[in-house]
Amino acid sequence: MRIGVHVSIAGHIYESLDRARALGCNTMQIFSRNPRSWQVSGLAGGDVEEFRRLKAEYDIAPVVIHIPYLINLATPDDTLYEKSIDAYIEDIKRADLLSAEYFVTHLGSHVGSGEDNGIRRFSDALKMIIKRAASRAMILLENTAGSGDGIGYKFEHLKRIIEDQDKPSGIGVCLDTAHTFEAGYDIKSKAGLEKTLKQFDKLVGIDRIKVVHFNDSLSAFGSHVDRHNHVGKGSLGMAAMKRIISHPELKNAAFIMETPKETEDDDKKNLAAAKKLAGV
Predict the structure, then answer these.
(1) Peptide bond into 62 cis (omega under 30)
(2) Is the pLDDT of residue 39 over 90?
(3) pLDDT in tens, 135-185
(4) How far apart are CA 120 and CA 164, in angstroms?
(5) Which of 27, 71, 104, 148 could disulfide-link to 2, CB 3.0 to 4.6 Å?
(6) Which candidate, 190, 209, 192, 202, places its Cα nearest to that of 249?
(7) What is the set of active-site residues?
């Protein structure tokens, strides 16, 4: 089973793999650059080579690259829309350079223009990006908590975007457990988890889930407030998280935590908790 955490890329980008290995990860997620800036520095050839070498040597796979925060493909602002598309293409090409398997994508905010407009804008942008980037990395749409004007908190949103693509089979999903719970899907109870996964399978297809962001929630059920907590320490709790990580329908997904990093030991503790729940 593949279990890991989101790892820092401080220093040389290949050092993220050393950090992941030291923690005991066999999968990981990173940003390929500063996620809060439009400015991008090129990846040095030597750093790319070393990243690929260590990835293979340490058997860390899949490597997941997360989209930067500033990109918004659902915006009604044409200037930001074009800038976001260009930045997205640049980022997914970086993912290809690093031989990353997946590129996790938040769906963005419609900024008051309405969900239907936001979904349409995102879907149109994604079609343009796929044609222009011709990426090898699979794009994974991440479900959201539904705060503010964000889209993606309903499985129906994912369904509409995927079905609108020229090649729907090439799009996967990153299911965030905290977001799912916060959006109003009861994955805390055994019956609720089964119902949610059946609903997801009917609308989107369970086989599209390639990555699970294995986060507990600091927020209440259905709150639409995106706040992560340590594994088993939040509103979901240990029993629910055990059912999720050991569910047979999710056995082929990589489980990656985006849990709080309040102390140096937090990643190790969350990783240990996840492995214990998974029985590995």
Answers:
(1) yes
(2) no
(3) 999 999 999 999 999 999 999 999 999 999 999 999 999 999 999 999 999
(4) 9
(5) 27
(6) 209
(7) 36, 66, 69, 106, 142, 176, 179, 213, 226, 228, 258
Cβ atoms of 139 and 92 closer than 8 Å = yes
Cα–Cα distance between 109 and 161 in angstroms, integer? 14
Tens of pLDDT, residues 201-258: 999 999 999 999 999 999 999 999 999 999 999 999 999 999 999 999 999 999 999 9
Instruction: Write the CA distances from 195 to 186, 188, 202, integer angstroms.
Output: 8, 11, 11
Q: In 3-state terms, what secondary structure has residue 88?
A: helix
For residue 8, the Cα-to-chain-centroid distance in whole angstroms is 15
Q: Which of 106, 98, 64 is nearest to 256 (CA)?
A: 64
Q: What residues form DSSP beta bridges with 255?
A: 3, 212
Residue type, 199: Q
Q: Is the pTM for the entire model greater than 0.85?
A: yes
Number of other CB atoms surrounding residue 277 within 10 Å: 21
Q: For residues 280 and 264, what is the distance between their CA atoms, to the nearest angstrom? A: 23
Instruction: Report the C-alpha gap between 24 and 262 in whole angstroms.
Output: 19
